[in-house]
Predict the structure.
Amino acid sequence: MTSQKTLLRALAGEVQAVPPVWMMRQAGRYLPEYRATREKAGDFLALCYTPDLAAEVTLQPIRRYGFDAAILFADILLVPQALGADLWFVPGEGPRLSTVTAQGDFDALKPAEVVHETLAPVYETLRILTRELPAETALIGFAGAPWTVATYMIAGQGTPDQAPAHALMAAQPALFDALIARITAATIEYLSAQIAAGAEVVKLFDSWAGSLTGAAFDRYAVAPTAEIIAALKVRHPDVPVIAFPREAGARYDGFARATGADCVALDNAVDRQWAVAHVQRDGCVQGNLAPSHMVTGGAELVAETRAVVQAFAGGPHIFNLGHGITPDADPANVQLMIDTLRGG
Ligand code: 1CP
C-alpha cells in the first residue's frame, strides 16, 4: 500500500509535484519556543535525555510549519557517551569529550551491546512521538556515521580539519580501525532500537566525510555506512536510510550504490545539474538549499527555493537545506520557503 506520508513516498522513488520538506536542525535555537523549553530543561544534555521535553521540541517545528517529517531530538554524541566517554557542553563553544588516543582509552570503552542502558530515554522519546505526531508526518531517527563520531571521540571536541583523527589513523591504524568498528556496532544497535521504538526512516550524518579522500573515503566513509545499512536491512528491510556524506564532492557519485542508501543528502556546495546526472540517477536526493538563505530571506530565498525544486523535479526529491539551519535564522523565512514550495 502506498503511504500517505509524502516523505516515505519520495524515499520509495515516487516523483511528486510538490516535494516533501523538512530541515536539518529544524528544532533549534532559531525558534523562541525551543529556547524556552531548553531553559526549562537546564542544559542541552538534560533536554536530550528527558523524553517529554525532547518530544516537545521535536514537535514544535511540526506545529509551527507542518513539515512533512519530524526528526528525533537528540545528538550524534550520545553514542560516545553510551560507550563510556565523558560528554559535556561548554555554553557558547560546543561539545567536549574525554579522548580516545591510546589503547588503554579504547580498552576502557563499553561493548556496543550495552549502549541501550544510556540511550533508553531516546527510545522513549520516539515512542511518545509515534503517538503525538500527525498521521501525515514521518518520523526520522538518526545517528552520526562512524568517521564523524570518531573525529569527536579522538579530538574531544569539534576540529575544523579533523587533524587529530587523521593523525591517529596514520600513527595507530589498528587502534583507529578498532574504534571505527566499535562505533559501527554501537550504531547498528542504536538505530535498530530507534526503529523498534517507532522511527520510520533513519539518517546517518557524516558531517566530516569531506576531509576523507581516496582510499580513506572508501574505508571510513563508504564501508562503515554500507555495513550499518546492510545490518539494518536484514532486520528492517522496509525502513529507508538517508546518508549524508557532507562535502564529499565528486565522491557523491556512486555513494548510494556503494552503501545501499535509499537517499543521499546533498550539501550546498554540490552543483545541482551535476547532482541530477550523477546522484539522482541512483534514486532519491535530499537537500542543497544554502542555510544562509534562512538568515537573508527575500527574493533570493524565493528564487533559490524554486531553483532547487526545478532542478530535481525529474526524479524523487526531498526538499531540505544543505546543512543545519543556524541560530540567527529568521523563523519568518522558513515560512516563506514553505509557502514558495507549496504555493508555487
Ligand atoms: O545549544 C543548543 O541548544 C544545542 C545546539 C544543538 C542542537 C539543536 C546541538 C549541539 N545538537 C543539537 C541537536 C541535533 N544535533 C540534532 C537534532 C535534530 C534536528 O533538529 O536536526 C541533530 C540531527 C544533530 C546532529 C549533530 N550533532 C551533528 C551532525 C549534523 C551536523 O550539523 O553536521 C553534529 C556534527 C553534532 C555535534 C554537535 N552537537 C551540538 C553542536 C554545537 C555540535 C557541533 C559541534 C562542532 O561544531 O563540531
In short: The pocket of coproporphyrinogen I is lined by residues 24-29, 38, 44, 71, 73, 75-77, 94-95, 142, 158, 205, 207, 324 (CB under 6 Å).
